[in-house]
Amino acid sequence: MTKLAIFDLDGTLLNTIEDLAEACNHALEMCGFPVRELEEYNTLVGRGIYNLFKGALPPSARSEDMIMKMKGYFLPFYDMHKSDRTRPYDGIYGMLDTLSYAGIKLAVASNKYQDGTEKLVGKYFGKYRFEKVIGQRDGHPIKPDPMIVMEAMEAAGIGNRDEVVYCGDSDVDMQTGINSGVTTIGVLWGFRTREELQAYSPWAIADSPEQLAGLILDR
Length: 219
Prior knowledge:
By secondary structure, this protein is an alpha/beta fold. It has 10 helices and 8 strands. It folds into 2 domains: 4-15 and 87-218, HAD superfamily/HAD-like (Rossmann fold, 3-Layer(aba) Sandwich); 17-81, Orthogonal Bundle (DNA polymerase, domain 1), CATH 1.10.150. Helix content is 46%, strand content 17%. The termini are close together. 43% of the residues are buried.
C-alpha cells in the first residue's frame, strides 16, 4: 500500500523545457558560444545545472571556470523568466487532488537547484502539502543517488520502502528508484522516451497523470 508518492519536478509535474532552454541559451550567448536547439534540451536537462552547462557547452570549453561563468548568467535570467512558459502538464492538478484526498503523502525530489525548485513548487502547487521539497544543493549528492529519496521518507515519517512510490520521466529517475529500493513509475508526458524508461524495468509506466494516480492508489 502506498503511503508516500515522491515526484520529480521538471518533465513530471511541470513542463519547464522552454524556460530552461531560453535561460541556458542566454548563458551560452553571453559566453560567446552557439545556442542549442530546443529539442536538444530534452536530453540535456535532468542531471542538475552543472551537467546542463557541461552538456550545452562545446566540448573544448567544458572547464570548471566556464561552467561557473555559465551559472553566473543562467541563474539571474532563469529566476526572472522561469515561469514565462512553464506550466503544469494537463491532468497534474487532478492527479494531486486525487492522491491528497486519498491521504497519500506527497514530496518533490528534483535535480533542479534548490531555490528554483522551491519557488516553482510554491507558485504552481502552493495549495498542496508536500512533506519535503528537495532540489540540488551544494555539498549534497544529486539523483540518481538515493539520499534525496531517503530524506523525503524521513520527513514523511515513513521507514518502509514498500510504502513509497517514486515517479519520474527520465533514466536518472528510473535509476534513482532502483538505487533507493522503492517502487518506480515512469511517466511518458515528459522529456524522454518509453524506450529509455523501459530499459530500467520500472514497476509501471504511466501514459497520463490520471493513470498515474490509479497506479499509485491501486498498488
